[in-house]
Structure formats: structure tokens, C-alpha cells
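Hi,

I'm pasting everything inline rather than attaching a file, because the server keeps stripping attachments. The sequence lines come first, and each chain or strand is labelled.
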Amino acid sequence: MSQAWLPLITLATSLLVAPLILLLPERAWRARAALNLSAALLKLLLVGLMVVGLYQGREFAFGFTVVPGVEFLLRVDALGMMFAGLSSLLWLATTVYAIGYLEDSPNRKRFFAFFSLCVASTIGISLAGNLFTFLLFYELLTLSTYPLVVHRGHPAGLAAGTVYLRYTLSGGLVLLLGVVGLHALVGDVTFGEREMLRDLDPSYHPLLIGLFLVMLLGLGVKAALVPLHGWLPRAMVAPAPVSALLHAVAVVKAGAFGIVRLVYDVYGIQLTFELGLLTVLTVLSVFTILYGSIRALAQQELKPRLAYSTISQVSYIVLGISLFGPFGTIAGLAHLMHQGLMKVTLFYCAGNYAEELGIHRIDELDGAGRRMPLTSLAFTVGALGMIGLPPVAGFISKWYLGLGAVQAGMPWVIGVLVASSLLNAAYFLPILHRLWFRAGPAHGKGQWPEERCLGRFETSGWLLWPSLATALFSLLAGLLAGLPFSPLDLATLVATEEYLP
Amino acid sequence: MIERLGLVTTQLPTTGSSVMALLVVVLPLLLGVLGAACRPKRGWPAVLASLLALLPLLTLTPLVVSQGTQAWVLELDGLTLHWRANGLTLLLLLLTQLLVLASAAYAPAYLRVAVQAQGRGPAWLWPLMGLLAASLSLIWLAADLLTLYIGLELMGLSAVGLMLLPGREDALAAGMRYLLLALIGSLAFLLGLALLLGAWGRLDLAGLAEAVEAGPVLWVAMALLSAGLLLKAAAFPLHAWLAPVHGSAWTPVSALHAALVIKASFFIALQLWLVFAPQAAVAAWVVGGMGAAAVVWGGLLAWRADKLKDVVAWSTVSQLGYLLIGFPLLIGTAPAVASIAWDGVWLQLLAHSLAKAAMFLAVGNLMLATGESRVSGLAGASRRFPLALLSFGIAAISLVGLPPSAGFTAKWLLLHAALAAGQWPWLLVLAVGTLLSAAYVFRVFRYSFVEDVELEDYRPVPLRMDLIALILALASLLLGLAATWPLALLEIAGGGP
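And the predicted assembly:
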């Protein structure tokens, strides 16, 4: 297998699954499940191959010219591989989950086809080697997630879909203007060619600042930076696997990943720092972190609370990269993975409660730990990780964020971290308390909103195992952070490349 | 810029290429007449005939690619006609033939299924379609004003004839109005032509380009020519006739009209401007302003439109605005800017033609299947007619200009050109146009995703009709990444290969 083709084949595994699924008849769910799962496994394998190749110092790149001066480029680098690894791992888990979740519901063919397209877009985003290619898949992601958000076709879903499109299409358009502007200024910018902008005459600096802000505006919509976050809580009406994927890896992360690319691989951290743009990012992310947490406190339903928590948590990534110094970088990038694992767990669990017991509101959760111990255990792991307790992965992120803040000479950020952790605790601990320590229907008091016994275990195995697996992964990512191939290790690799030329 | 039109060439045409160029024009006409005699009930004879018409073009293409631009001078009883074939001509000829092929393959099934397509109308479809293809080919090949006028007139008349085919009252009313406006347009064009002939005594574009001098005569002539052409191209504010005409026309006819007929007028107008007024930046800005207004106004009306076909028709008005923005980017700008804009404009034309034809066919399928012509009638369509909706969606991606479609690549080039020229207003127009087109397209989708409707009477259309729409839509999508191929063809511009 030629090395240039490896990124292309990886992309194709999920891209080609979409038309194949559309060709299968609606009721052939076994064939569809087999197709989905084998493609997900194959992709995980291919990404694994590329990660190993990357550690061995091999180059994988595939490209062709689209119009003179503009190239379509897929390229493997450490940063992209982190995102690709996350997305292919969570694709597998979410596919399993979605098969269970959507059992016997209509329009599954359409769902899985667009689901595959959505994952293909995230893989494309992670493999993109320049801004043009990134933009291509970034927009494709918008298109492929819309049918997922409105999947149920009820008025609330359709309204949420409209809001979602308004935000993301406008954001994409603004990003396009910024990218074209940069292209008109310096031509095609391959990720990692930081010298192209660094060597520009200082008289261009105001223009560069303007372009950065325009692109940040475009990316900030998907990254749900306040005040561009309005679509995210509304998109919660989507089915649970969609919310899980949207929050953990697809949409929100695509925005955050775009900001990471912009800072490290287009402008370069040095230039971003000199232009004073890191301060903009710090202020924006600190505000988003606190605002998201405070709004989360006020939510009475489980999924909206998790949504606001996402808004807050994703900004840790932005905060990390805005702290000038390797520790900040490591924190931000590691959190990209950690937050994905933990948040997807929390959303799976929320979906499990809703499917098995009909629970949507937080005050209905009393005593659910007794009825669904494994789900609740997974939820607890995720929640503790979000708060930042060792040994869950979230602790590593916060630890390095603190180190980064000191290194960047901004110790006040530690105060923000403490405040935010307290807020996290304030909105997660009551849920845990209700789960484990309150008496509820499982203790013979009252009854569940809508109980269905879906499987042999506490709920259907299709729903349970993915939740447990991702919970386990978030635990392992924290416990084994020092081993090679861990998120922290990859993040360190990227940070070393960035700061040691 | 004028050299890109291939009007001046030192190459002598070969016999082979002359025969082929003649066949490109005449063959569709002959086949159309044959079609009227046989009236194909099935798709494959129509496809075979269209493929036959494609043959001379496929022979001509390698000749032009290897030998460069070909030019012909035909002497007919004192009349001198000038023809030429360069990369741009080939591209437009290919587009024409492929879209005619798609429509011809679509038409028999459509005529069989559609209730409104009964009666005597179908007999006329084939010769008129052949005439349309022939006159379009003539326009792409023409290098003098007389041939252009003949082509324009034939095209206009055959288009009106095609629009009148349904024979219903509303079709007749809209068609007669179209005929009237088309005649006014032709009259204005003829007056302008007469002025030029009177002042400089010749009609070949290459010769006129040398001879004309700026002055009142040229300005009046250009104003008349442009007004006539823009009226036929449904440019804002001369667009009001377009939507009613499409509302009652047959689907394959609508597809051809929006994809090609309107583009022909635009092509002539741009060509004349580049030849006669290559530095008239101010006037070009006026045309650009009309384009901007068209983008916004067409987009707004498409968004508010109640009927499916009106959405698509108004979107044509809006998309034509993008092309008109090409005027200020091409005329009076630096060569570097103009070169980017040149690629952008023709790619946009290709993208829109393919996507719009696909969209008309998809909408036609949806309307046939649901029996509803209103947007709200689509409720529940996403489950019942996924294929038609998929074609619509893919075509929409190109119309909105989202990646990886050809519409996106074209928009990228136009944005780039506008930035490089420092003409900021067009950035805003393109941005607003994108958002508006997203709004009207997703409004259709919003209805189609509604789930809680009871199963009513609906009849799926034959698979072939869906597939043709899908193929056209996919072509407009994939052309975005394969844009180097048409752009390389555009490079064959002037003298040598």
C-alpha cells in the first residue's frame, strides 16, 4: 500500500459507506450494522497505522491542484492524528450506541448515511493539510449534521435545525472570507509553513490581526465561544448519539481544532503572541468558561446542563493554547481528547437514562444509581473527570493548564480554574448525590417517568457497553498518561515540535 | 482580455475541423426533425440520437486542443460570416450537448408520466429542441454580429415555442409575454447592430475591435445591444418575465432554458463588452450593481416564493447576478485580477447550468410524485422520495456555493478576484447571496423533513428520471474538485495551442 494513499483510504472508508448505506433497503439493519461496524474498525486500524508511521517519522501526504494556486491536500501530522484518533475511536463507540438507540425507529438509513458523512468530514478536517481543504470539510460537516439534528422531524427539531444552520452557515461564510483574504495575501498556506506569515513586512500586521479575528469569528461559532454559542443548547433536541458526537468530537471540536490550527500552524504561536492575539483568546475563553458554567447551574434538565458544560469545557482547549508556553499547549491539546472522551460518556449515560427510564429532568434522577449501577458509575467517572479530580483524564488537563498559566506569567488564570472547578462541582455533585444517595423509585418511592426494560442488563447492551468503554478510556487516559501513544504523549509531541524548531 | 475570446488567430482551419464544426450546428437540427417523425416513446433512441450529435464535437475537441483556435470565414452571396472555436467555445458546446442529452433522455419518460403533457405538444418538442441546440451552438461559435443575431433570434423563437408546448392558458399567456419581450430585445439588438454597421461598415468582431472609436455612436450602440441582451438574460430589473414562464413549462424545457438560453445572452453581452469597451470600468460597475441587486432581490423572492418552481426560477435571477458581477471584475481591471475573474465567471456558469438543470429536474420529479406544486406540499418527502430530494440537495450545495461543489470553487475565484481588485462591495454581495440562497434552499428541506403527515396519494416517478437529475447534480458537485480540467480547456484561447 502506497503511503500517499493511506490518508485517502482512511477518508474513503467513511465517505464511501454513506452511498452504500443509501443503497441498502431500510429494513436491512443487520447488513447496515455490519457495514458500519466494519468500516469503523477498519478506520481505527488505518488511523493506528498512520500514528505508528508518524512515530517512525514517515510522511503521508496526498494532494492535487483544484484551481491554479489552490491545492487539495491531505497530510498526516501529530496534531491531526490526535483528532483523527479521537474521531475514529468515538465513531466506533457511537455507531454501536446508535444502532441500539435507534432500534425500530424510522429513517435509520438516512441517519446512518449522514452519520458516516459527518464522520468523514471530521476525518477530513483532521487530515486537511491546508486551510482550503480544512474549509472544505468544515462546511461539509455543517451539511452532514443538519439532517441529524432535525432527524426526528418534529417542530422543535426543525426549529433547532434552522437556528443551527443560521449560526453555522454564517460562521462558515465568515471563515471563507477570512481564508480567501489570507489566500489573496500570501497564497496557499500549508499547515506548518509558519514562516510565510512570519516573514511578512510588519506593515501587514494590522491586516493579519484583522484576518485572524475574522477567521476566529468563523471558527468560534462551531467552537461555541460566547457570544456565538446560541445554537448549541438548542441542538439538544437531536437524538442522544447525535448530541454525543456533536459535543464530543464533531462540531464543537471542529471549531476548537480549527482555532488550534490557526494559532499553531498558520500564524505560529510566536507571531500570534507578538500580535497580541493570544490575549484576545485568553479573555474570550475565560469569559466563556465562567459563563457556560454559570448557565449550566441554572438548567433543570440533564441534556441542557451537559450542553452548557460543553460550552465551558471546550474553552479550556482555547485557554490552553492561548497560554504562551509548552505546558499551555500540552494542556489544550490533551484536553481536546480528554473532553471528548468524558463528554461522550456523559451524553451516552444521559441517553441511557432517557431510553430506559424516560428521565429528562435532573430531579427525576433520584436513586437511579440503584436501578442502573453501571450507567451511573460511568456517569460518575465522567462527571468527576469534568470537575478535574484525579485520576480521571480531566485532572491532567487542569494540572497542565495551571502549569501553563504560571509559565505564561498569568497566575490569575489559576484563580479562574479554581472558580470554574468549583462551579463544575456545584452543577455535577448534586446530580451524583441524587444518583447514589437519594431514595427514589428503585427504593419503592414514586415511580420512573416511563420505564422500559430494554435488555438483559440494566439496559440494552448496545447502549451500555459503549458508555462503559468510553468511561474506562477516560479513566485510562488519566492513569496511563505517562505511557507512549496516550493523549498527553501526543500532545507533548506536538508541543515539542511547536516550541523547538 | 480580447485575446481570450479567440477572435484573432493565425491558424488556418483544416478541412476536418470545418466539417465537424458545421456538423455540430446542423446535426442537432436534423435529429430533431427525425425525432418529430418518429416521436420516441422510450429513452434510448433519444439518448442514441443525442450521442450521435455529440460525436462531431468529440472529434473537434482534440483538433482544437492540438492545433489551437480554429477560425472560419464563410462567404455566402456577399454576406461574410465568421466562426471560431477555441477552448471556451468547446466548453460551452460540450455543456450544451450534455444538457441536451440529459433533457432528451428525461423527456420520453416525462411525457409518458406527466398528465399535462398530453395532446399534440410532444410532437413539436423534438424539432424545437434540435433547433435550440443548433442555435446555441451557432452562438458559441459565432465571431461576427450577424451570426450572433441569427443565433439569438433562432434561439429566442425556439425557446418561446418550447415554453408554449403545454398549451394551457397560463402557459400561453406567459409564453406570449415572453415572446413580446424577446422581440423587443431582438429589436434593440438589431438597432445597435445597425448603428455599428453604419458607422464602421463591418460586422466581424475582430475587425470591429480594431475599427471602433469611443464616442456617442459606440455608446448608444452598446447601450442598445446590452439592453436587448440583458432583457433576454433576465437580468435585474428586466427579469419579471422569467418566473411565470417557468411556472407552466415542462420540466425538461425549464431545465434547458435556465441552464443554457439565459447564459447565451450573457455570453454575447460579455463578449461584446470585452471587444468594444474593454476599459469602460464605470459602465461595468453599473452592470455589476444590477448584478448585486439581482442577487439580493432574486434571493429574497426565491425565499418567499410559494411554489417550488418559482423558488428555482427566482434562484436563476439571483445566480445570474453572480455572473453580472464578473463585468466589473473583468473590464478595466489589472490582467492578474481579470485572469482570476475569467476562470471564476466561466466556472460559475458551468456550475450553475449543471446545478440548475439538475434542480429543475429534481423539482419536476418531486412535483410529479407528490402532485403538489407548492413548497409546503413536500411535507414528508424525505422519507418517500429520498432520491429526488438527494439530487435537489446536491444541486443546492452547488447553488449555495458550499464545498466541494463547482459553485464553491467559482465563488472562491470570484471572491479572490474581488479582493485582489480591491472591489470590496462584491464581497458583501457574494456573502449576502450565499446566505439568501442557503435560506431558500433549506426552507424546502425544512418542509421535506416534517414527519407527522399521513400517507396520502403519491406515485413515484420512474427511476430513470431520478437518476438523470442525480447525475447532473453530482457533476456539478464533483466539478468543484476537478476544476482544473475545464480551466485547462479555457487556456486554449488565442493563436497557438
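Chain A touches chain B through 39 residues (CB under 8 Å).

If the labels don't parse on your end, tell me and I'll reformat.
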